[in-house]
Design a protein that fits this description.
419 residues, mainly alpha, 71% helix
Length: 419
């Protein structure tokens, strides 16, 4: 997520009708929504699961070192390779950029209607953090909502800067964790990261047994892992990359890139240049780590190739979706992706509910027992549920269920749910 913004305010291209009094707005009519922006959000949300399923189904270390657990040959290797090349870091980057665009759009619309935009933003974001905390500690430690919410609280202070200034500050922030990790990789004794890079078999087995157990047993791993991600992980990486990506999203929204307002040749150039740069960097990273035989000495440096490559590939995806949605705004694919995007928060939480039910011990208990290829079949199954369900839901309801609750908490009034 997202971003996660799937409410009418965040996806609107037109004005909200009705009273400007807080809490009395009606949802933005579909004809006034930025359909391409909704479709791009839905595309990013679905793609995120390709990588998240690895952590839902296997020990956490597989995101850092895929050779540390599970079969890594044949079809399983190529499923990892394809996911790393086309999905890892790409969809979450796109999702974060879109969250930044959502902040800009929300504040702009609220200021236009004479509301106290910053107060509403803080309340709305505070509730998102609360939802994220519940998600992280009750369901899955890989939550992104808390980090998004905390970053959004300060990023909004730069809303009045020119787009070029936002983009420059965003790039500087994004560069910080990469520079820190590169410096660490050049001077750190490899033995200091060896246990993280390739944990002991006993530690991996303990994590598998934990998540094959019941919900209470899972807390022993979920809680400390979530705390680590929201403290050390936040200040070392999330704060910088997420804040920077949000600022880039605000700049791209304000310059028309995320609203489909740029020319067809612009998006074509962006697709080619972004795709070539992103895929090339990621491929060089794979060559680098495989040439080092996946040794701990290369652990910190190899991630930087995909770190930067993900931005190029995300830009290419953005361009391709904008081109497609511009050509077929009423086509079935565009409408299906837009429905997922309009219910992004609900769908993000639904992905967790479905995946943990399949893999954790309080459900089918398949954690640690499926291959990478088999995990991708679960991704397809979840998509098969989410896409038609989102389309069907929006035929009868104005918001996704989570979006409706989030909006009610923000405006302190129950909005109408049924059409």
């Amino acid at each position: 997520m997202m971003g996660v913004d799937g409410t009418a305010d965040e996806g609107s291209a037109g004005t909200d009708a009705g009273s400007a009094t807080e809490g009395h707005r009606r949802p933005t009519p579909p004809s006034e929504r930025i359909v391409a922006l909704d479709a791009l959000r839905g595309f990013a949300l679905l793609g995120i699961l390709i990588i998240n399923v690895r952590v839902f189904s296997m020990p956490e270390v597989v995101l850092l070192n895929p050779t540390a657990y599970g079969d890594f040959s044949g079809a399983n290797y190529w499923s990892w390779f394809g996911g790393h090349l086309l999905a890892e870091g790409k969809f979450i980057t796109l999702f974060t950029v879109l969250f930044g665009a959502g902040i800009a759009l929300f504040v702009r619309n609220r200021e236009r209607d004479g509301d106290d935009a910053l107060r509403l933003h803080r309340r709305r974001t505070g509730w998102l953090v609360a939802i994220g905390l519940a998600h992280a500690y009750l369901l899955w430690y890989g939550d992104i909502l808390v980090g998004y919410g905390v970053c959004a609280l300060w990023v909004v202070s730069l809303r009045d800067r020119p787009p070029r200034s936002k983009a420059l500050v965003g790039l500087v922030l994004v560069a910080v964790p990469s520079l820190m990790e590169t410096a660490a990789g050049l001077v750190t004794d490899p033995s200091l990261v060896a246990d993280t890079w390739r944990p002991a078999e006993a530690a991996i087995r303990a994590e598998i047994e934990t998540y094959q157990g019941g919900w209470l047993a899972q807390l022993s791993h979920r809680v400390p892992t979530a705390v680590s991600r929201q403290t050390a992980g936040f200040f070392s990486t999330t704060l910088w990359r997420v804040s920077g990506s949000m600022l880039l999203g605000m700049a791209l929204f304000e310059t028309g890139v995320l609203t489909g307002d740029r020319s067809t040749p612009f998006y074509r150039r962006l697709a080619v240049a972004g795709g070539l740069a992103g895929l090339t960097l990621t491929l060089v990273g794979v060559w680098y780590i495989e040439a080092a035989d996946w040794a701990a000495e290369a652990a910190l440096l190899w991630r930087q190739f995909n770190y930067w490559g993900s931005f190029g590939t995300a830009a290419a995806y953005l361009a391709v979706v904008m081109l497609y949605a511009g050509r077929r705004p009423d086509g079935p694919v565009t409408r299906a992706l837009a429905a997922v995007g309009r219910t992004a928060l609900s769908n993000y939480l639904l992905q967790t509910l479905l995946a943990t039910t399949v893999f954790y011990g309080h459900g089918l208990g398949l954690f640690g027992s499926v291959s990478r290829v088999e995990a991708l079949w679960v991704v397809l199954a979840v998509w098969t549920v989410q896409v038609p369900l989102s389309v069907l839901w929006l035929r009868y309801f104005r918001f996704g269920p989570a979006e409706w609750g989030w909006r009610a908490l923000t405006y302190r009034r129950l909005p109408p749910l049924r059409r």
